[in-house]
Design goal:
about 325 residues, alpha+beta, 60s Ribosomal Protein L30, Chain: A, Phosphoribosyl-aminoimidazole Synthetase, Chain A, domain 2, 2 domains, 7-stranded mixed β-sheet, 6-stranded mixed β-sheet, 11 helices, 13 strands, globular, Phosphoribosylformylglycinamidine cyclo-ligase
Length: about 325
């Protein structure tokens, strides 16, 4: 029998995470003296470094508990794509071009076949993002790590006057959502709990695909963003990751009204039904079909819809700093 679930009950408290991050950032008061200082504040999707006429960017992220699904299925060929996607998509939000990447693997013990498969995914992710993997680190931490954790750090570059920070966003701007490939790499503590208690990874979806196959589908890499920003005016962008629609609040002092949300992928519809999840819980935990978004003036809409696969108008910018889904606030 299915029952109601929540991300908090599954072990992840989004509000507590936000408080913890704020507490950490509050301690980061030191600023480098001399050249190549930091631009902007900590808290955007990627950090920016002054490099004269250029801006360098750094961000870091990992695969999270999606690794547990890969472990249970015994297929690690796609998690490297996720690792790179979660980094480069954060850079695309600011129109930064990713150029180099280093990975970090912490494991309780080396499994050669597992490492080969992880390498396959990392290589494919680098190809999709047109980026070099220039190094990495593997640490065997038996007694500290249970399984394997994969993360990485990305370096990007852009002309200073082409960086998109969201500061041009204004009420009335149009929100264009771009389709996700499924759950991507967030909310897996809850997704795994629902899956394992409702038929397991071998359970079949209406399409015939198994739940496990759907959950291991890699995160979409939105590399077309760079072309879009060369062709049309873009005021801001958002990578919809952990926190769902609440990610929009990171990029502007204004708010965002989603009136016509993206179609919900099959696996997320299944999670919704099996978990009997409320709308607020769904849209603050998962991407719910929208993995990325452009915030643009009306005159940019038609060209973006023509350039980007799976893009549609989903809403507009509002004066109040909040996110509305069909008129109801997500919090």
């Amino acid at each position: 029998m299915s029952r109601k679930y929540s991300y908090k009950d599954a072990g992840v408290d989004i509000s507590l995470e936000a408080d913890g991050v704020k507490a950490l950032i509050h301690q980061l008061s030191y600023k480098r003296s001399g050249g190549h200082g930091m631009l902007g504040d900590v808290g955007h999707f990627a950090g920016l470094i002054d490099f004269g006429s250029k801006v360098l960017s750094l961000c870091t992220d990992g695969v999270g508990t999606k690794m547990r699904v890969a472990d249970d299925i015994g297929d690690w060929t796609t998690v490297g794509i996720d690792c790179i996607a979660m980094n480069v998509n954060d850079m695309y939000v600011m129109n930064i071009e990713p150029v180099a990447f280093v990975d970090y693997i912490a494991t309780e013990g080396i499994d050669t076949e597992q490492m080969i498969q992880i390498g396959v995914g990392l290589n494919e992710g680098a190809k999709r993002a047109n980026m070099n993997i220039v190094g990495g680190e593997t640490a065997t931490l038996k007694g500290m790590i249970n399984g394997l954790d994969l993360a990485g750090t990305c370096l990007g570059v852009q002309d200073r006057d082409r960086v998109v920070t969201g500061e041009k966003i204004a009420p009335g701007d149009v929100i264009i959502g771009v389709a996700s490939t499924g759950v991507h790499s967030n909310g897996y503590t809850l997704a795994r709990k629902i899956a394992t208690e409702n038929g397991g990874y071998a359970a079949k979806l209406p399409s015939g695909k198994t739940v496990g196959e759907a959950l291991i589908t890699p995160t979409r890499i939105y590399s077309e963003v760079l072309d879009v920003c060369r062709e049309v005016e873009v005021h801001g962008m958002c990578h919809v990751t952990g926190g769902g629609l609440l990610n929009f609040l990171r990029i502007s002092e204004y708010g965002f009204a989603i009136e016509d949300p993206m179609p919900v992928p099959e696996i997320l519809q299944w999670i919704k039904e099996m978990g009997e999840l409320e709308t607020n819980e769904l849209y603050r935990t998962f991407n719910m079909g929208m993995g990325f978004a452009f915030i643009v003036p009306e005159e940019s809409v038609a060209k973006i819809l023509a350039m980007v696969d799976g893009a549609k108008v989903v809403g507009h910018v509002i004066p109040e700093h909040k996110v509305l889904l069909k008129g109801v606030e997500i919090n």
